[in-house]
Amino acid sequence: LACSHHHCAFPVRYNELCVWNIATAQPLYLSGHHYSISALSFGSKIHPLLVCSASHERVIVWNLDECTQKVQKGFTPRGIVIGTLLGMVLHVRFSPDDQLVAVCAGNQIYMLSAKNEAILAELNGHLAPVTAAEFCTREKSMLISVSEDRTFKARKLVWDYSTSQLIYQSGIITASPLLSLLIDEENKQIITGCAEGQLWIFSLISDHNYRCVAHINLKKEQEKFYNKVWKPGKEIGEGQNNSKPCKTDNMRPEGSVETSLPILLIEHCDFFVCFHNEGSKYSSQNTSYFWIGTSTGLLIINLANFELEAFLSYKDYSNLSIRIARSCALTTKAANGKVLCLITSMFEDMIAVLEVNLAALVRTQHRDFLLHGNRKSLSVVARYRIMRCFLSMLDDGFFYLVLNKLNYFTTGVKNTVKDKPLVFHNKIMSSGYTAAPRMTMFSPNSNLKKKEVSKWKTSCKCKNKEYPLESYPPIKYEKEISVTYKPTPIFCVRYSGDGELLACGQADKTVLIFNSNLTDVHNVFSGHDGAVNSVGWSHDRKWLISASEDRTLRVWSVCNKEPALILGKEKFRKTVRFAQFYFIDTFILLCSGAEFHLLSFHLDTTKDDLKRYKQRSVCRLVQKFPMTSTMEITSLSAVNEFYSYIVLTAGSNRALEVFDLNAGCSTAVIKEAHIRSVHQICQNKGSSFSTQQPEAYNLFLTTASGDGIKLWDLRTLR
């Protein structure tokens, strides 16, 4: 996606470019790619306005003025091909004078001429795909890049950009890949974000040597912001948010599953432009603000105190069907106090264009700002419309543009509705904000001394480093323990994501959790009426899911022996198997007979004193997916470490089937994949987060049966 002052660009039909003029609401379609477009960028100048599109096989620069004229005359517009066969392009960026284009393809950055096909320089040095690169406006020969190798580099281009000089190379900043980058020219700083919701700010001042100025944890800043804005006992009156949320869950409820927060975009925010006509405290401040685009919403950060000023969550608006975004883009300048934002859905081929009223967004979330503004505005809820949605669905290549003219975000409310509160009473108690958010989900076992734990971790790390890869696998075990007093079969074992805990499902209907060195039993879960056939950890390692032969499913908190969620026998007709968390703890997948179920859930471990035995966690069925011509699913594989919509199943009929949950259907069936029934499927999960397109995920899978092991290429199944 890409946005300029008055234009938005996005791909349709995967390989066709659509440039939408915001002022005239007219789309311009540009064809020239044969493969999916993976990166877009607008030029720095307005006249002429250039846009660069990149795919696997070519990079094209389009002059929008010339293309518009050709379309009006009935001709097919053509762009200038400036690069071919560079590989998977993740990011493109024009230089300040629009003479150069930096193309991030794989581990390299190609400096291309914007006028003809010429590679001026190839910049190496990163050890993983380069995710973003930015030119420095005050010094156009300076280029800064970030990569999935978790480092950033500053280079200076010399000798007509044919060579480069490495000015600075950082160490590894974080444990997660760096995804986004912004150069703050006014404050001479670099701002970069990673896949786990962390922001780092580095100084560009010459004698500071790129030192780290600040580190911001967005998850903690969100919780601080909610505590400040929605205090316990606070009431929602007439001057609060005029949009109608579909669910009041801004503050993460106690016991809920916490997901990752990838930072997809960092952009400047015209904060003061939106308040220049209002006598508020914000219009007189002298500081900088910038937007943060994540997979769940938009945030505004104050660069003076590094605090959160406003937050817009996609889930809070019932008219917006996108809940989790794969990518986003923002207009660089506000028009009439409003900013346009483009987001794409993680699961569907859908793009939403959001018109955000910045002043209204801040007003509804800051009580002290309400007191400084016009008091008459407090009684008119519908006057300050926070967001207007333009939904464009990309289905079979057709482009639909729907303008939402509703004053309220409620289906069926027309524009003729008079200004009045959204509820029948003037004031209602805020539901869900009376309790402080739970900062720590569980505490580790305190029986072990800290010295012993740290000593054991250090020894394990040393052993891992000393073990040579070319040596034979170990044949002697270090420790053996007995899990029960009598011989009991263990049906399944599973390590947690950090390798600190080990879960075992046993035939005696219990689930045991050990420390990874088998020195202590961390917890024992009992409650199933049959043998436990599968266990699975959540991505944040705070929850454990178990399935049993008694046709029940249970979700346990690691620190509590009582289950947080129970799905009984009435939900399933056959034995539940292969239960796991899916889509970074957003859903639950499980198999029952010849079909697998996709479930959405919400976990709540709090207890009501009057109804202690009533379960407060909820779970509902999203959809059932039957496997073709089989009696029972014998194996299931899905990725929870990153966002992936591919689910693989194997049946008793010896077939292998690929499901695309993005499309909600089966996409490929391999009949008689093995001579015998497949009992294990393994996907190549790769890194915990990748910026590559979904086509690049899980290209290979391995199946195992009684007749051997086979390797499959998913690209040949499409």
From TrEMBL:
It comes from the Eukaryota. Gene3D superfamilies: YVTN repeat-like/Quinoprotein amine dehydrogenase. It comes from Certhia brachydactyla. Coiled coil: none annotated. WD repeats lie at residues 525-558. Transmembrane segments: none annotated. It holds the Pfam family WD40. The lineage of its organism: Eukaryota, Metazoa, Chordata, Craniata, Vertebrata. Keywords: WD repeat. This is WDR27 protein.
